[in-house]
Amino acid sequence: MEQREYLREAENAAPAAAAQEAVQPAGEAVPCGGKPRKGKNASIFNGRARIFVICMLAYAVVNFAIFYVWMNIDSILLAFKTYNGTTGKQEYYGFSHLFDNFKDFFVNLFTASGTLPYFLRGALYHLTGFLIAYPISLIFSYLIYKKLFLHNFFKVMLYVPSIVSAMVISIMFKTLAENFLPVIFPQLGNAPLSDKAYATPLLVAYSVFFAMPGQLIINTSTMSTVPQELIEYGRLEGITMRKEFMHVVIPLVYPLITVQCLGLFVGLFTAAGPLYAIYAEMAPDYTVTYGYYIFTRVIGRNASEAYYGFTAASNLAIGLISVPIVYLTKWLLERFDPEAEY
Amino acid sequence: MNVFQKFGHDVRNFFEPKNLKRRLKARGKIFPIVTYTLLALWVVIFLAMLIWVFFTSLKTDYDFIYYPLSLPKQEWLWSNYADAFSQLSVEVTRGGKLIQVGLGELLLNSLLLCVGVPLFALFDVACCAYVTSRYKRFKITRVIFAVVIFVNYVPVTASLASGLRIMKTLGLYDQIWGQWIAASGGFGAFFLIYYANFKSIPWSYAEAAFVDGASHFTVFWRIMLPMTRGTFGALFITSFITQWTDYMTPMIYLPTHPTIAQAAWGLQFSNTSVPYMLAGLFILAMPVLILFCCFHKKLMGSMTMGGLKG
Question: Is pLDDT at A262 greater than 80 in this prediction?
Answer without folding.
Answer: no
